[in-house]
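User: My collaborator and I are trying to settle a disagreement about how two of our proteins should look. Neither of us wants to argue from intuition anymore, so we agreed to look at predicted structures for both before our next call. Could you fold the first one, then the second, and keep them clearly separated?

Assistant: That sounds like a sensible way to settle it. I'll keep them separate. The first protein:
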Amino acid sequence: MKRLWVDFNTLSSAPVDLVKIAAPGSADEQALPPLRQGERVLLYDADGLEVEAIIIHDSAGWWLALPDTSTWRDTIPASDSTPSLSHP
């Protein structure tokens, strides 16, 4: 499964609930691996979030992804306690 770095903040911009991967003709589009409409991929970000998603190539040429909300994962473990500070 291909892994694509994304900005999950794009979920809230139109079209809502789709991750925007790359605009047509953009440097982001040029950097993408070969993708197919309907392909399943793994999206991730710098904060450790991951989700499986289905690729959409819309009529305007945008590469988008529809997240499978049942697959959200946080790959950075939560700290169970506040680190203690030791003083010399």
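The second protein, kept apart from the first:
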Amino acid sequence: MVRSDQQYTRGIITAEPRQAISISKGFDVAVFGVLVGYLCWCPLEDNFTRGSDVTIYVGLAVSAIVLMVFAVYLFITRPCNGVLGHKLSWISVWILSAYAMTYFINGGIKGPVEITRFWIFRLALILLTGLVSYRLSRLGLLTLRTIAACSVFMTGLLIASMLAGVVLGIEPQATYQGVNRVSTVTGVDVCGYSLAFALPGLAVLKRHLLRYTMMGLTLVAIAVTYRRGPMLCAAIAAILAILLGYGDSLRARILGVAIVAICILVLIATIGYQMLATRWIELYEGTSLGWSLRDKIYPTLAKGILDDTDCWIFGHGIGSTVLATDRSFGAGRFAHNDWLEITYTAGLMGLLPFMLLNCLFLKVAWTLFHQRHKTFMIAAVAYELFFVANIIGGAMYYPAKGGLLFSILGAVCAFADNAKMGEHRPVGEF
């Protein structure tokens, strides 16, 4: 389907339609470059220089510029010209409005500044990343090839840096709950979610050997971070990717299982089963350390939600989960669960759009499955990561983690709209 000049330049008032096309296309390409650069830079910055005040404020400045470009871009081009795009836009606006209302009603930000600073800004950046990804994918600029290339670049660099850290004997700057973790060459421990959220891109690599090798190495890299949440998310994602198969034959899927199994066996032989199982054994034993205080966080916040009926509509305020847990057991923590965090913070005004967001992503996966579209697998893997991370960790806290996942989910929404409308836009293969 070929769009007319008027369709392409919808929302841009100009007397020269062809000139508007040129400007709009140039803007699309520019924002495409900003988006790809941001998605590659943000997780790497977080995993190489975390904790440095200089990089925090540099990252804030860069993020502010990116957010400004995104906002201007969305305002000028009216990007969400598909059914799912309109819904994604309204849900995003509703979520941000809920946080804005709880901010004003509850008298600003609650909790310590070092934990809660720029909360609405970070959330807006995550949601806008998804919206811009939708726009670029509708135009055929952001494709599976680009997503896969970004995922390979990011995971490859992180894995290579972790390997170099082991070879050079670089000790991590801090231990994590008594476990010595593998760090990058700068001594910063790697966030497992940054690796796990790249799996949808790795799962659509066209070459079987490259795809399953990268997935196996990524699982190994996540395992040596000793974070159970990312490991659980990634393990389920890998199983889904192998079962669904990106156009794979049974022989190719068996090859995938073999490669992943070999990677895991080599890891066990190198580090030892006991070391890898340390934190899972703690979970089995049921200690607060093993549960990372979740056995105290969840009951505290659930009780607060049920007892404080005055806060059912607009919530307790941004950062209130940190104050509640600090008062309860002397350790201020976020909920480590997006459902609890959003409900306690923004009440029903935040919970309802978050439920709709999950329903929207499920609908996207179903649409692509019903159309037998080649992007169904990336939709299924991305939503699995989003759903599981929502429950056991949180995907809405930091742009370094959530931005990458939302960019993939936004692109998948565009693929679903294209498939539903019968439009043959390029999705690309890598």
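Some points you might bring to the call about the second protein. The radius of gyration is 22 Å. The chain has one domain: 5-421.
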